[in-house]
Automatic annotation (TrEMBL):
Any one GO biological process: NAD+ biosynthetic process
Key words of the record: ATP-binding, NAD, Nucleotide-binding, Nucleotidyltransferase, Pyridine nucleotide biosynthesis, Transferase
InterPro entries in the record: Cyt_trans-like (IPR004821), NadD/NMNAT (IPR005248), Rossmann-like_a/b/a_fold (IPR014729)
A GO term for molecular function: ATP binding
Superkingdom per UniProt: Bacteria
Gene3D superfamilies xrefs: HUPs
Pfam family, any one: CTP_transf_like
EC number(s) given by UniProt: 2.7.7.18
Pathway: Cofactor biosynthesis; NAD(+) biosynthesis; deamido-NAD(+) from nicotinate D-ribonucleotide: step 1/1
PANTHER family: NICOTINATE-NUCLEOTIDE ADENYLYLTRANSFERASE-RELATED (PTHR39321), PHOSPHOPANTETHEINE ADENYLYLTRANSFERASE (PTHR39321:SF3)
Assigned protein family: Belongs to the NadD family.
This protein's name: Probable nicotinate-nucleotide adenylyltransferase
């Protein structure tokens, strides 16, 4: 059974933050809480991936990453999910299709940092992602200009909500996206691993 979220009412708005979370850090928590506040979301799910197909080295075991996420995310609106592992999906387009099949009455919004928007056109079936769900983009330090000039931003400029319309994003019909400049914490999983503070 793929459904594991008991407290979902029809029409609830859920932001999806995907990643390896290897390890999770304060930046993940900050971006989630900003998204909850600014995009009118009821919940945010951290979709802990089995592994990133774009990375050669595998992450730490998913059970360890899930446990670390639960230790960090004490906000009751943030839920830790291994949906991708249970559904057997590896690319975002497939994950979204599976989620919408299991939770047809939930309104999902895909969340990403501006660095991901800059490379979104390299993702598998990325136009399908834009067609399926609204996308909320939160700027990280140094990524704003590159993200705004990215192919995805140019192609879908007509579907961009203004910053003042951000609370409407979670109920907008796709394609729709919103780019927000927010104070971000300049932390990364790779930096934590490089310091030897997390071992797989």
């Amino acid at each position: 059974m793929l459904s594991s979220h008991k407290y979902l009412a029809p029409g609830m708005t859920v932001g999806l933050l995907g990643g390896s979370f290897d390890p999770p850090h304060a930046g993940h928590l900050h971006i989630s809480q900003e998204a909850l506040k600014r995009f009118g979301l009821d919940q945010v799910w951290w979709l802990v991936s089995p592994g990133n197909p774009l990375k050669a080295a595998g992450p730490a075991p998913i059970a360890r990453r899930m446990a670390a996420c639960r230790d960090l995310a004490r906000d009751p609106r943030i839920h830790i999910s291994d949906f991708e592992a249970r559904a057997g999906t590896r690319v975002t387009a497939d994950t979204l299709a599976a989620l919408q099949n299991v939770y047809p009455s939930v309104r999902f919004t895909w969340l990403m940092g501006a660095d991901n928007l800059a490379q979104l056109h390299r993702w598998g079936r990325w136009r399908e992602i834009m067609a399926r769900v609204p996308v909320g983009v939160l700027a990280r330090p140094g990524d704003r200009i590159a993200a705004r000039l990215a192919p995805a931003a140019r192609i879908y400029r007509h579907a961009m909500l203004k910053a003042g319309e951000a609370p409407l994003l979670s109920r907008a019909e796709a394609p729709a996206w919103c780019f927000l400049n927010v104070p971000m914490r300049d932390e990364s999983s790779s930096a934590i691993r490089a310091r030897g503070e997390w071992r797989g």
